[in-house]
Amino acid sequence: MTAFLIRRVGQSLIVLVGVSIIAFILEHLLPGGEAKALLGNRATPIQIATFNHQNGLDKPLELQYLYYMWHLLHGNLGMSLKLNQPVTTILAREVPKSILLVGTSLILSVIIAIPIGVFQAVRRNKIFDYAATSVSFLLYSMPSFWLGLILIIGFSVSMHLFPAEAPQGATVGSILAHPAGMVLPVATLTLVSFASFSRYMRSSAIEALAQDWIRTAKAKGLSNRAILYKHMLRNALIPIATLIGLSLPSVITAGVVTESVFNFPGTGLDFVNAASTEDYSLLLGIILVVGFLTVIGNLLADIAYAVLDPRVRYR
Q: Beta partners for 86?
C-alpha cells in the first residue's frame, strides 16, 4: 500500500506539472496579453513594451515558465494586477468558502443518495423506484444555473423563505453567521450531485444483490437487514467511492456556475470575474488549485477502493 501511495503521489505531481504547462501556454496565447488587459486598448506600443520588460514578459516563454515554477515552489502564485493583491492571499481567503459550499453539498448528496439508491434496488420496478428514477433523470439533465434560478423564483421571489443572494463575508465564520443564505446554493449543488450518485448506487446495489454470496447469506438464515448493511452495502459502495473522487471536478465546475448565480464570494465567482477582466495571474492560480483538488480526489478514490475491497492488493 505504501509503495502504491508513493507511486500515485509521483503520478499526481506529473499531472500537476502538465496542467501548469498547458495553462501557462494557453494564458500566453490569448490575444493582447496582460499588458493590454491592464493598460487598456489605447496603450501605445512603447507602454506595452515597457510593461512587458518590467514584468519579465519579454523573455522566452520557457524561461518565463521556469521563473513561474520557481516562485510557485516558494508559495508565490504571482500578483493579481487587477486587484493589486497576491494571488495566494486571494485564494487563501476564497478557497475555504468554496470548500464549505462544495463540500457541504457533496456530503449531503451522498448521504441522501445512498439510502435512496439502496431502497430503489430493494424495491426495484415498484412505484417508488419509478418515481425516484424520474426525479433523478430530471435533475441530472437540468443545468445547475437553471435549477438555481428555479429555486430562487420559487423559494425567494414567490414564497420569501430564503434570500436570493448567498451570504457576503470575507471568512467562513461570517458566511456561517447567515445560514439561511446558504440553503439555496447548497440545495442547487446537492440536487445536481444527488441525481448521478443515486443512479450509480441503485445499479451497484442491484448488481451486488444478484451475487452468489447474497444467496448464500440468505440460505444461512441471515436477516434482510444484516444482508443489506453488513454484506451488500460495503461491496456496493466501491463504485460510489470511485465516482465521488472522479466527480469532484464536475462538482467544482457546477460550483463555479452556482457561485455566479447566487453571488457567492468564492473561487468560482473569482474565476468568472478574472475571466471577464482578463486577470490572467488569478486565472492561472485558480486552475492550478482546481487541478490539485482533482488529483487529490482521484487519489482518495483509489485509497477508498482499497479500503472497501480487501481483495484489492496494489503491488
A: 79
Q: Which of 40, 74, 108 is the last residue of a domain?
A: 74
Whether 271 is covered by a domain: the verdict is no
Where would I find the beta strands (DSSP E) of 25-109?
Answer: 79-80, 85-86
Rounded to two decimals, the pTM is 0.79
DSSP string, 2-27: HHHHHHHHHHHHHHHHHHHHHHHHHH
Band of residue 252 on the pLDDT scale cut at 50, 70, 90: low
* Range(s) of the domain holding residue 208: 97-266
Give the residue-averaged pLDDT of 8-29. 80
Question: What distance in Å separates the CA atoms of residue 203 and residue 213, rounded to the nearest whole number?
Answer: 18
Output the CA–CA distances (angstroms, integers) from residue 55 to 34, 35, 61, 64, 269, in the order listed. Answer: 10, 9, 13, 10, 27
Whether 313 maps to a domain, the answer reads no
Cell digits of residue 147: 435549477
In tens, the pLDDT along 186-239 reads 999 898 888 888 888 888 888 888 877 778 877 877 777 777 777 787 778 777
Measured CA distances, 259 to 47, 160, 300 (Å): 36, 20, 25
Across residues 286-315, what is the average pLDDT? 72
